[in-house]
Amino acid sequence: MLGFTFPLKGVGGNGAKVYQCFGCRGVVTYSDRLLVVGASDRHLFVNPAGVECDFRTFSDCPGAVAHGSATAAHSWFAGYRWRMAFCRQCGQHLGWHYEAVTTLEGPREFWGILVSHLVAR
After folding, report:
1. Element of type H or E holding 18
2. pLDDT digits (tens, 9 = 90+) for 41-93
3. CA distances from 85 to 16, 21, 104 (A)
4. Which of 1, 35, 101, 106 could cross-link to 91 by cystine, CB 3.0-4.6 Å?
5. What pTM was estimated for this model as a whole?
6. 3-state DSSP assignment of residue 79
7. What CA–CA distance (Å, rounded) separates 58 from 42?
8. How many angstroms separate the first and last alpha carbons of the chain?
């Protein structure tokens, strides 16, 4: 378990749904933060190990924290580097945080959170 002790900034949300960590039920984000990337806010890719990754993209996830060095290796989004994303409360892996490589890309950053790692209420 990773021990993250960062304050939760911008936790409020006006979305109809609250998305919680499947492990600890801590708030990760809200439905008003869903973000269309590449024509959809839901994506299905297969990683290099052959594992299917079904995830939603969000503009902000105040209940998540990005960890590690950003890499462009095997990125599913051209022009973006990624880092692992974990639950800020319990340290459970949730998905990835994407950062634009250049200032020409938009959005500058976003989150890809695995559907199976979220509980919607």
Report:
1. strand 18-21
2. 999 999 999 999 999 999 999 999 999 999 999 999 999 999 999 999 999 99
3. 23, 12, 24
4. 1
5. 0.86
6. coil
7. 10
8. 25
